[in-house]
Structure formats: C-alpha cells, structure tokens
tRNA uridine(34) hydroxylase (Sinorhizobium chiapasense), 324 residues
Amino acid sequence: MTDISTTARPKTQGPEARGAEAQGQFLVAALYHFVSFPRFADFREPLQAVCDANGVKGTLLVAHEGINGTIAGSDDGIAAVLAYLRGQPELTRLEHKESRASAMPFLRMKVRLKKEIVTMGVEDIDPNKVVGTYVEPKDWNALISDPDTLVIDTRNDYETAIGLFRGAVDPKTKTFREFPDWVRNNTGLHNKPKIAMYCTGGIRCEKATAFMKEQGFEEVYHLKGGILKYLEEIPETQSLWDGACFVFDERVSVTHGLAEGEHTLCHACRQPLTAEDLLSPLHEEGVSCIHCHETRTDEDRERYRERQKQIALAKKRGERHLGS
C-alpha cells in the first residue's frame, strides 16, 4: 500500500477589456463538457473547419462522452468557435474558462477523436449519472480547511511538482490511468468522512469523483472550474494555493489572476523547469534537464541537439519550427 503524505466571463468593451488585452493579445479558452455525444465522429471535420476559418489553434478532443480541450486565438475568433459549439444541441450548457497569452500558445489546430475525453481507463464511469458535489471557488477554502476533509490532487506528478493546495495529498501518478489503482490500494482514504478533489480545469476531478462514488465513498467534493477558476476568482491574499499551475500549452504555467508563470518547458522530457533548474549544469536547452539527463542516451541527446539547431535556424528566419 502506498503511503498518503500531504504535501465565461462575458466579453467586455470597457476598461476591463482593455486591461485584459494588455495582459496578452491572445484569448485562451479552456473547456469541457460531459454529455452523451453519439455523433462525435461526424462532428470532427465541421469543428476543425470552424476553428481554421476563425484562426483558432489548440486541441479539442471529442468522444462519445463529450468534449474537452483548450483553444486560443483572437477574441472574435474564440467567440465564434464557442458560439458554434453552444449551437449544438448537446453542448448548449458548455462552460469555459478564459485567460490571456502574450504569444500564440499553440502551433496548430487539432480536433481528435478519442475513446474518452479524459483517459481514466475504467468502463462505465459517467459523471452525468453519478458525480461528487461541486464546490465554488469562494467556498473551497472552508472545505479544505476542515479537519474532517482529505484533499486529493488528481493531476500527474510533473504538474503537482510546481504547485499544490496547502495540505493536499499528492498521489504522484504519472498518468490519470494510475489514479483508480492508487485509490484501490490506499485504504487510508476512508479515514476521513469527506474527500475533496481538484485538478487544472475541473474535468479530471469531476470524473474522479464519479469513480470514488462508485467505490463507495459518500461525501465526495470537487472544485468547480478547477485551479484555473480558483486562481481567477480568489485574491492571492486569501489563497491557499502554493506555487504555479501547470497548463498544457506554451505558457507552461499560470499564477494568481491567471498571469503567465515563469516556468519553461524541457523539450526533451516535457517537464516544467524553474529559473533555478535552468542554472543546473545538467540543463542544455532542448536537449536535457535535471529531470531527464540520466534517462537519455548520447544518441538521444545528439538527435535533440539537431532538432534544437533547426529550431534556432527557423527563429532566425522569423518562423516557428513545429518541433519547438
């Protein structure tokens, strides 16, 4: 048994909108919606076309259980894609979360067909049938400060490495597929009457609560809108969040107020790096870092060096290499 250790706003036109634009010219929309979506395969090409026509980039996953992803573009482009999505009878209640980026955080637009919109690998887990109790960000601090509550981070180890809620249990999973076995192997999870779970945008913890309910846990809660919504709404002076939140785009991380974080990404292993990590003698841009230096061969590093050379040449030409 593993040890358990703690470790749409509306579009505006006034000063608020101008302030948002000052933070970054690109609007980033994170979205997901669990819904029965049997026609998902036929939806891929039309959705791709709408995104391309509006200059929107990112990744959207569609499956029989709904849609999930993050996209970025101009304010008008994102508004057009969201309007198209909400125009579908299955997606009228789709919610999204917004942030800004100073540079386009994606290289291309990909609409992908999947078996699950977030991969847990457990059959018949449906948040539309059974799910935990949603907790608004304003009520989250009180819940996780309750001594009767066990707080669990449902993200992966490279995400939790740069930020956690105070006192949260870190399962140290490498993928979300490992989460069900982690729960089954930890009988100590039953020691407290309340379980509170969270993730980046809400999708993993929502599915995790459905799984926990199926496993017999009764009082199960999850943070509505995830860390992103919490960081957007809760002032830093009142926050119980420590560190930065990993995001799955070229910004790498965001902090309170959804400001862009200071992390960069190792393009050899995709781990987030701090300024201190970059000073390590094991760090070589695009080739290795403190997390992966010992696990890569000399042949790997030579291949990465060649890729990094091509990235640098593309940058000199004013282009962006697809491998960057």
Observations:
- Residues 1-22 have pLDDT under 50 and may be disordered.
- The first strand starts at residue 26 and ends at 34.
- The CA atoms of residues 246 and 252 lie 6 Å apart.
- The longest helix spans residues 298-316.
